[in-house]
Amino acid sequence: MRRRRESVRFEAAELFAQGISPPEVARRLRVSRKSAYLWHRAWKDAGTAALVTRGPSGRRCKLSPRCLEKLADYLDQGPAAHGWDEDQVWTAARVATLIGRKFHVSYSVSGANRLMHRVGFTPQMPVRRTAERDEQAVQVWKEATWEEVKAHGRPAWDGSASRTKRASPAGRPADAPGGAGVSRRS
Questions:
Q1: How far is 80 from 73, CA to CA, in rounded Å?
Q2: How many alpha carbons lie under 13 Å from residue 89 in its C-beta half-sphere?
Q3: Residue 82 Cα distances to 39, 90, 99, 109, angstroms
Q4: Could you report the per-residue pLDDT of 42-96, keeping only the tens digit for each?
């Protein structure tokens, strides 16, 4: 990504040198006008060297490249090798704890999540199931009881359950208020 940004900036410098205006440079290079004007000002003040990027912003990684390799190895070993025996799932919270234990560096859960992506892993969420779940009983219920419950469905009643919409007069007795036998006002 960095090379792409620099090459666009250098293309902009070439276009500025040809006398092309910042709005036209923005259109040709598909960048914002604001960026084109900023680049033009920097180019006028200090030349093409002023358009070199300073690298990514933000804080640097707390772990060295060697530590990142070790972290990837630890993640390959699986959670059970590091004390999480319940399941074989790496969550961002577990990775943050592992980094603290192995490298004595504090990472937030979101920071550990980004770091996992950087070393080629994705965090996973453990499946929440009750410990007492009886799979055989669930299957029997699905096959027998569910089919029985599902088959009947909701009965079709005349009228409406809505409190704001009146029911159809067709289903009412003729002598009832609003019934078919009562004439409506015109």
A1: 14
A2: 11
A3: 51, 11, 11, 18
A4: 999 988 888 887 766 778 888 999 999 999 999 989 899 999 888 888 889 999 9
Token code pair at residue 183: 């004439």
CB 15 within 8 A of CB 25: yes
**Residue recorded with tokens 């070199």:** 52
- Per the document, the length of the chain is 186
Q: CB–CB of 152/158 below 8 Å?
A: no
22: Cβ contacts below 8 Å, ≥ 6 apart? 16, 33, 36, 37, 39, 40
Give 6's Cβ-side CA count (13 Å radius): 11
What's at 170, amino acid-wise? A
Residue 134 CA to residue 150 CA, distance in Å, equals 22
Token pair, residue 65, equals: 């490249």
Amino acid letter at 66? Answer: R
Q: CA 171, 174, 176: angle at the middle one, nearest 5?
A: 85
* The two three-digit tokens of residue 177, written as one number: 């208020």
Structure tokens given for 66: 């060697």
> What's the rounded Cα separation, in Å, for the pair 135 and 132?
9
User: Which pLDDT value is given to residue 28?
Assistant: 93
CB 96 within 8 A of CB 109: yes
